[in-house]
Specification:
Distance between the termini: 33 Å
Shape: globular
Order of helices and strands: HEHEEHEHH
Mean pLDDT: 84
Radius of gyration: 15 Å
Strand order of the largest sheet: 1-2-3-4
Structural class: alpha+beta
Largest sheet: 4 strands, mixed
Strand content: 5-15%
Number of helices: 5
């Protein structure tokens, strides 16, 4: 059976954005989730200032005083945290730290696990809005 990769998920989310929000400017990080050569990965790392945890997607639309929306996309079924509440991997912990830093800079920034969750985050940001309080209660971050 076919298993969707993170790169496939990015394409699916980009397609959804183009269809549902054609006037919204967005950017998706090509290198994220892709199998890059050592050279390509090195260039990608340098282009991002050495940071490995930069989110996969950015929606450049100011909403409700926020400067835009960052989403770190994860394929369906990805577990973010262990039962004890710690991050499942050190890379996820780095990504969570980056999302928090972006929030402190005035952006919305979330993990989106699978297409449905990514779509919900986008729709909440661009359309009907779930309050931050509700989101924190739901997601825990």
């Amino acid at each position: 059976p076919y298993v969707m990769t993170e790169a496939d998920l990015q394409v699916q989310v980009a397609y959804y954005l183009r269809l549902q929000y054609p006037d919204v400017i967005f950017h998706s990080d090509y290198g994220s989730g892709a199998k890059l050569t050592r050279y390509q990965a090195n260039v990608q790392r340098k282009q991002n200032g050495g940071r490995r945890a930069y989110p996969d997607m950015f929606i450049a639309k100011m909403m409700n005083g926020k400067g835009g929306l960052f989403i770190e996309l994860k394929k369906d079924g990805t577990r973010l945290k262990k039962k004890d509440g710690t991050w499942f991997t050190s890379h996820l912990a780095e990504q969570a730290e980056m999302l928090e830093m972006l929030k402190m800079e005035g952006y919305e920034a979330y993990f989106g696990v699978g297409f449905d969750e990514a779509k919900e985050i986008i729709d909440n940001y661009l359309g009907k809005r779930m309050s931050n309080k509700e989101r924190v209660a739901k997601e825990g971050f």
